[in-house]
Amino acid sequence: MSTLQTIQQQMLQAVLAERTLPPHIVLGDDIADASSRLDVYRHGYRIRLRDALKVEFAGLQCMAGSRFEGMLDKYVEAHPSEHYNIRWYGSGLAGFLEYAHPWREKPQLANMAKMDWAISTAFDAADESSMGVADLSAVPPESWAGLRLTLQNNLQVLECAYNTDAFRRATDNGSKRPHLRRFAQPRQVLVWRRATTVHYRRLDDDEWLVLGASIQGETFASLCARLAACHGESAAMPRMVTVLKRWLEAGLIRGWDLA
Amino acid sequence: MTPSSATRPGSLPYLGYGLGLRVEHYEALLANPGKVEWLEVVSENYMVSGGLPLVWLDRFRERFPLVMHGVSLSIGSADPLDEDYLARLAALAKRVEPAWVSDHLCWTGVQGVNLHDLMPLPYTEEALEHVVNRVKRVQDVLKRRILLENVSSYVTFADSQLTEWEFLAAVAERADCLILLDINNVHVSAKNHGFSSLDYLRGIPVSRVQQFHLAGYEQGERLIIDTHNAPVSNAVWDLYMEAVRRFGRISTMIERDDNFPPLAELMAELEHARALAEPLLQDAA
Ligand SMILES: [Fe+2]
To answer: Which domains are seen in chain B, by residue range?
Structure first.
């Protein structure tokens, strides 16, 4: 007589193993032997996890092409699920592609997986309200130097050495698979959600400079100083206004306070 | 004899004929609810922090009575109950105020690993006591009786001492919970294990059954597989009529999880269920 715990552990090991004899705890009969019975669970486990990943990693599927299925198979064999919601099973895929041979030789794959996952997590992140241009008119003119912006918590920035976002875009638009291109300098891709729609776009280099500084809690005066260092004193303020308007229109800003 | 709702423990409402809510049918169902009287939502799909899933949930909540159906409670697991899961489930139930909350009589993982499957239990006295204690705990946290559903199964454990229906009936009686009887799963398991589906129905206490599931399966090489990707089979319609004769007026719904047809086809299946059940219920009354 086995305990409930032993039975479940043996059953679990038998399902996770790619091939193994059924444990003696499972009965076979005239309808089907123990192996074919166990195979229903083994097969179902793998199909379910792979199907769940396919939903979340559309960009990776586009980029990896015919290698995609094999990649998922290896991840499934290497990583048992630890989440009660199967949707979260993909949280480890980018990490897996970063260290597992042969995919680690192609870092664009892990990067693509990261972007897909960022889009996926933004989709059902906590709701947040966003601020419009009118809300900033409440800031007294003499206080602007000390203004600090509070950005959306769901906002994520990914460093990309390749045109990773183009693969996701091609999938989302149903357009042709792009060619892989390595950037001369890594670019930053912003992922965020506005109301119920997830967006992503490349950041201009100077925009990333001030967005990153904003996330760190730097004041408006300090953001302007950073732009002045790039573009010169006279160009800094108009550029700051352009960038700020863009952020407000995209719903990136949740609120403000004064340093 | 049709038991009246007053004789049912806890007397939950009778909801009529419903469907499992799936994202594939969101738009169509809001545009034309037809004769769909209630919806069953998969709890885990809405146990999220925000975004579109909860927006849709609120829209349906305004239009239909809802019940919550979970797949990850893992009531039979040897692992401790996942208190975080339970807290989130309770929070969702507070938001939705469903007519009832259900999950499955199964385990979904052990040792912290989740198989995302409805694994059958060994039908032993030890497992029975374990499940009963956990159902009581869950009912305390949720402050309501839960429904447990019979699963389709493909293995039998050498250690089982009870039949599946004896086990299910004993859980319901001892833990004072209710039963979601999946007619298709009774049929699938009966075929796969060679028992009588009528014996199964006769072994289930009438007063404990609160809901029926109907679904389709796939014929495998030797076993039949509960895939929810096909129309309800003739054998399951026959068994459904037997179940209506035995259990009376029970809230009934159709589950489809794959190979989605247009909503109208599911609605037609649901009307077929109504057309089969209502004359039997009239006769009984
Ligand atoms: Fe079911």
So the answer is: 38-284 (3.20.20.150)
